[in-house]
Amino acid sequence: MKKIWKRVPLGPLQTNCYLYAKENGECLIFDPGEEAQKLIGIIRDKGWKPAAILLTHAHFDHIGAVDAVRETFDIPVYLHKKEADWLSNPALNGSQYFQMGPIQAKEADELITEEGMMEIGGFTFEILHTPGHSPGSISFYDRDERIVFSGDALFRGSIGRTDLPGGSHEQLLSSIKTKLMKLPSDTLCLSGHGPETILEDEMNHNPFLQ
């Protein structure tokens, strides 16, 4: 069954939330960072039926709308176990370092503990642990569609920042090169900020990977 994706930039940092839907209307919500009512309105206008919220990581600009969206649709939130405490802690999720006030959410319903294949809400992904931007950063790879939701690990022409708690430049480069760049070169990469890209283009042109 063919899937479609929609990018919805949200909040002051224009963090990309992605809606990933099947033709039958089932959908997943990646990184609902802010503007909950805008996001809820889009989902309802499309007639989509959310099954879960998937977090690539728990930085504040990716979690601001988590609780409102979770409660509206009564769906679970998935997050890597290494950031289990981040949703409720502004020091860990980074919101206390920016002039936006503390951002908090209730704990995740499901913690992802290992890499490998996982079925979530009728969708099947390969979970890749891609730390460096943050300790629990994960990427969700849909093998059938050749799409990877990379969070803030890899951007078009750039990579994620590593100056927030738990960040590591060397670890991030290792994650990109040993995990993301091992995927098929024509894989579409949907990043946490900015436009989509193709992994082959990043292999050949991203200055951080040369």
From TrEMBL:
<dbReference type="InterPro" id="IPR051453">
    <property type="entry name" value="MBL_Glyoxalase_II"/>
</dbReference>
<feature type="domain" description="Metallo-beta-lactamase">
    <location>
        <begin position="14"/>
        <end position="193"/>
    </location>
</feature>
<dbReference type="InterPro" id="IPR001279">
    <property type="entry name" value="Metallo-B-lactamas"/>
</dbReference>
<keyword id="KW-0378">Hydrolase</keyword>
<protein>
    <recommendedName>
        <fullName>Metallo-beta-lactamase domain-containing protein</fullName>
    </recommendedName>
</protein>
<dbReference type="InterPro" id="IPR036866">
    <property type="entry name" value="RibonucZ/Hydroxyglut_hydro"/>
</dbReference>
<keyword id="KW-0862">Zinc</keyword>
<dbReference type="GO" id="GO:0046872">
    <property type="term" value="F:metal ion binding"/>
</dbReference>
<keyword id="KW-0479">Metal-binding</keyword>
<dbReference type="Pfam" id="PF00753">
    <property type="entry name" value="Lactamase_B"/>
</dbReference>
<dbReference type="GO" id="GO:0016787">
    <property type="term" value="F:hydrolase activity"/>
</dbReference>
